[in-house]
């Protein structure tokens, strides 16, 4: 199923905005609050699990994902994670927001006790050490498979290992609090014609970071 | 009849109230966190790295070999979205540009928070497919013979583009050079212009 966040190569988009060097960090004050509240929320769930946040973003509806931009989707994801951990009741944010707007809305009772996932990362951040040697070497040809952080536009496409990066926790299991399962990560280089077919820019290529289990020999 | 959904500004305020009431956040801590990303963590850090690489060939070599360590020689490094940074060098023959098609991953320690165009669905969707056209729309025309390498930051590797040093800047100091380096050049959607 297509993921709402998986935009690479998708059709139907207009021109890219022209950069404004004077753009403020936050376009509106609420964006800065959403940014900080989300950052603190991640620490309240079960360790600073960035992958759980990304996975939650992926479960938003297209309207939740797109309608209020980048920090709007952060707000929706923060709320969803707080509800999933029984820190806030479903609908609590909506009810409070309507009251702030002058609405006469009953607020839901808060959950009796948080129900956070029983999970703690083994170390801060995402980088880990993996004892086993990398399965692929620089220069190897590899075919990309699906995975939590494998963009759809590379699935089934063949590229070349360009760099071996430090091992990372595996998003597929870490995001759902099922284990870190660190793996080697490879920067794989795909020529444009392999991704987009004949007519693609001959002098262009795309590199993507892919976990070892997202790769197979062609 | 239901009222329209509350605005994001009201939802943010509601969320802050609810978390404050539960003792989970404090307004002054939030203020401090926001201020850090509004003023301390920004593209000035990356600009200092680039200027050092332009004037010091040994530093340039260290930056291209191990950017995560080299960055810490001149600026604050590490932390969120900066665990492992790779620097790539633009040349007259090869141009690098960075995107995150799955979200908006961006090297926070050296560039700060991403600008709006970087988070725009059109940029995320199109720059991997038609980079030369997208760069032209953004004001950077690259001749067809210049190779373009697009880096899609799909994991925790963060990419920093080392732009070309503009001609005519031989007499400038490192500090003067840093003042020329823009955020957009360090993502690869612009070149650095001589003053």
From TrEMBL, chain A:
It holds the Pfam family NHase_beta_N. Keywords: Lyase. Signal peptide: none annotated. Residues 1-103 form the Nitrile hydratase beta subunit-like N-terminal domain. Residues 1-24 are annotated as: Disordered. It catalyses: an aliphatic primary amide = an aliphatic nitrile + H2O. It comes from the Bacteria. Belongs to the nitrile hydratase subunit beta family. This is nitrile hydratase. It comes from Pseudonocardia yuanmonensis. The gene is nthB_1.
From TrEMBL, chain B:
It catalyses: an aliphatic primary amide = an aliphatic nitrile + H2O. The keyword Lipoprotein does not apply. Residues 9-190 form the Nitrile hydratase alpha/Thiocyanate hydrolase gamma domain. It comes from the Bacteria. It is an enzyme of class 4 (lyase). The keyword Cell cycle does not apply. Pfam families: NHase_alpha (PF02979). InterPro entries: CN_Hdrase_a/SCN_Hdrase_g_sf, CN_Hdrtase_a/SCN_Hdrlase_g, CN_Hdrtase_asu/SCN_Hdrlase_gsu, Nitrile_hydratase_asu. Keywords: Lyase, Metal-binding. Its EC number is 4.2.1.84. Belongs to the nitrile hydratase subunit alpha family. This is nitrile hydratase. It comes from Pseudonocardia yuanmonensis.
């Amino acid at each position: 199923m297509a993921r709402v966040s998986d935009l690479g190569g998708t059709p139907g988009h207009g021109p890219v905005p022209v950069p404004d060097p004077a753009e403020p960090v936050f376009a509106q004050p609420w964006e800065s609050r959403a940014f900080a509240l989300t950052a603190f929320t991640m620490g309240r769930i079960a360790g600073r699990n960035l992958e759980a946040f990304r996975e939650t973003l992926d479960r938003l509806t297209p309207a939740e994902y797109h309608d209020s931009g980048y920090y709007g989707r952060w707000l929706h994801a923060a709320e969803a994670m707080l509800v999933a951990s029984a820190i806030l009741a479903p609908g609590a944010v909506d009810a409070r927001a309507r009251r702030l707007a002058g609405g006469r809305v009953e607020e839901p009772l808060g959950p009796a006790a948080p129900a956070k996932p029983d999970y703690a990362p083994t170390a801060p951040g995402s980088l880990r050490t993996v004892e086993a040697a990398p399965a692929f070497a620089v220069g190897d040809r590899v075919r990309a498979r699906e995975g939590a952080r494998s963009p759809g536009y590379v699935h089934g496409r063949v590229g070349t290992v360009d760099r071996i990066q430090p091992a990372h926790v595996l998003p597929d299991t870490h995001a759902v609090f099922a284990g870190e399962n660190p793996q080697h990560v490879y920067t794989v280089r795909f020529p444009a014609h392999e991704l987009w077919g004949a007519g693609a820019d001959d002098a262009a290529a795309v590199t993507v970071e892919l976990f070892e289990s997202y790769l197979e020999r062609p | 009849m239901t009222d329209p959904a509350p605005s994001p500004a009201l939802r943010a305020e509601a969320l802050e109230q609810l978390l404050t009431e539960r003792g989970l956040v404090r307004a002054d801590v939030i203020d401090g966190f926001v201020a850090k990303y509004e003023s301390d963590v920004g593209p000035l850090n990356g600009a200092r790295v680039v200027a050092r690489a332009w004037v010091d060939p040994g530093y340039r070599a260290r930056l291209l070999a191990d950017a995560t360590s080299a960055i810490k020689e001149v600026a604050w490094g590490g932390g969120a979205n900066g665990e492992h940074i790779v620097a790539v060098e633009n040349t007259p023959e090869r141009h690098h540009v960075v995107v995150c098609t799955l979200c908006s991953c961006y090297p926070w320690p050296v560039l700060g928070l991403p600008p709006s165009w970087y988070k725009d669905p059109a940029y995320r969707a199109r720059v991997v497919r038609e980079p030369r056209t997208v760069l032209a729309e953004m004001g950077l025309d690259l001749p067809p013979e210049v190779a373009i390498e697009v880096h899609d930051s799909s994991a925790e590797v963060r990419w920093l583009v080392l732009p070309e040093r503009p001609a005519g800047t031989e007499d400038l100091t490192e500090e003067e050079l840093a003042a020329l380096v823009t955020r957009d050049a360090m993502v690869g959607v612009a070149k650095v212009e001589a003053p």
